[in-house]
Amino acid sequence: MEHKYSIRRDDNVEILAGKDKGKRGTIVRVFEKKGKGRVIVSGCNIVKKAMKRRSQQDAGGIAEVEAPLDISNVGIVCKKCGRPVRIGYKLDGDKKVRVCRKCGETL
User: Fold this and answer.
1) What span, in angstroms and rounded, lies between the C-alpha atoms of 55 and 58?
2) Strands in 16-94 per DSSP E
3) pTM: predicted TM-score of the whole model, two decimal places
4) Within its chain, how far is the Cα of 65 from the centroid?
């Protein structure tokens, strides 16, 4: 069963918990499968990973990659408030738009 999340790719977010708490970045990818709800944020949650050599030219070794974070540990940043906020929804004509719960600005 796939869940629908209010955070999407290219959203500006702030990390609310974990080793990178307070860092900001943009969402690179959202994993929705099996209700896990994880996201990759650019430049955050960097881990070292052993990479196998794939070809003669490709250098193997230890690489630094961005690891997924739980979606509950990131908050979308409102442009007007400038801080992480919760998301609400409003009907704009016939479209459903995401809005900031604090100031009402569309996200």
Assistant:
1) 5
2) 24-31, 38-41, 46-51, 61-66, 69-70, 74-77, 84-85, 87-92
3) 0.79
4) 15
